[in-house]
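Tokens for chain A. Residues wanted.
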């Protein structure tokens, strides 16, 4: 089999594993748009959610033309209190078997006291509340269906506190640990869950941030992962492992090692919790 044939076979098996619909939160550009592209290439219909409807509609035209799939677009600001309900409303009655929660960059990049509590609250609503509410609803549907895949996009910032990333790193730790916990709970029932831990990745948001701080792209470009490569790796790893640390270039192996150490810890601590709470009947 050629590499192209292998890729096509992998893409088809994605649809067999996860069914007819994917929902991508934060789909208008970068990693989220790429998840939609690779899902559509596998014949999976897509529900695309973000704020900029024009970009979503443009992507929808591309996916329909190139892959003949159905596409629904919905403008939702995930920092708003009703965000999860609005996003889930766009998927009502549809069999969503693949869910990607991608949106979640820090729009501030300031020290803790230099942004108001009200503004930090928006980051919490997007990276904690909307994520929690949407996962709770979609995971229930997947469990009932006996299959599904959830990808939570998080960050290396989740591994430690960092000056100027205080609230961001705390919320990304929430996403990382939620995803790993769901892997422990749901994968035995056929629902795959992956915490996708990104290092610096070439996205429009990252480029805007660099430009805003007058950092030339050349200064970091050799360290940037590409969205298509990240998404390919994530869809390959989904169903194999709880965690993928995607880091370019030289630290990649170290990232995989830390992902396997995390896997061992998740299994060990989940067993330990069975001692406290008893095993499921
Ligand atoms: N790029 C990196 O170097 C890097 C590194 C580590 C982790 N990550 C993680 O990777 C993910 C993607 O990062 P990114 O750099 O592409 O930036 P991002 O701004 O989080 O993601 C871009 C996507 O999210 C959507 N989005 C952002 N804020 C939203 C909101 N309030 N409501 C609805 N949709 C929203 C954007 O669309 P609209 O603007 O149209 O709403 C766009 O579709 C994030 O979770 C981020 O934490 C990125």
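Reply:
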């Amino acid at each position: 089999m050629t590499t192209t044939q292998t890729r096509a076979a992998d893409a088809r098996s994605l649809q067999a594993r996860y069914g007819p619909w994917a929902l991508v939160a934060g789909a208008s550009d970068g990693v989220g748009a790429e998840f939609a592209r690779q899902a559509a290439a596998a014949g999976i219909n897509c529900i695309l959610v973000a704020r900029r409807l024009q970009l979503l509609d443009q992507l929808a035209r591309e996916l329909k033309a190139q892959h003949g799939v159905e596409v629904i677009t919905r403008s939702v600001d995930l920092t708003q209190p009703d965000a999860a309900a609005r996003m889930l409303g766009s998927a009502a009655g549809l069999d969503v078997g693949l869910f990607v929660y991608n949106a979640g960059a820090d729009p501030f990049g300031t020290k803790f006291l230099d942004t108001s509590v009200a503004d930090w609250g928006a980051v919490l609503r997007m990276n904690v509340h909307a994520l929690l509410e949407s996962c709770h609803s979609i995971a229930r549907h997947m469990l009932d269906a006996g299959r599904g895949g959830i990808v939570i996009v998080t960050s290396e910032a989740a591994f430690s506190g960092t000056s100027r990333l205080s609230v961001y790193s705390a919320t990304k730790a929430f996403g990382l640990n939620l995803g790993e916990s769901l892997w422990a709970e749901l994968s035995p029932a056929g629902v795959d869950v992956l915490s996708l831990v990104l290092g610096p990745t070439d996205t429009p948001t990252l480029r805007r941030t660099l430009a805003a701080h007058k950092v030339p792209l050349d200064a970091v470009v050799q360290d940037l992962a590409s969205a298509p490569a990240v998404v390919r790796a994530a869809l390959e790893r989904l169903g194999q492992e709880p965690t993928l640390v995607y880091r370019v270039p030289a630290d990649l192996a170290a990232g995989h090692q830390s992902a396997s150490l995390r896997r061992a810890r998740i299994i060990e601590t989940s067993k330990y919790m069975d001692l406290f709470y008893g095993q499921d009947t």
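The first helix runs from residue 3 to 18. The two ends are 45 Å apart (CA to CA).
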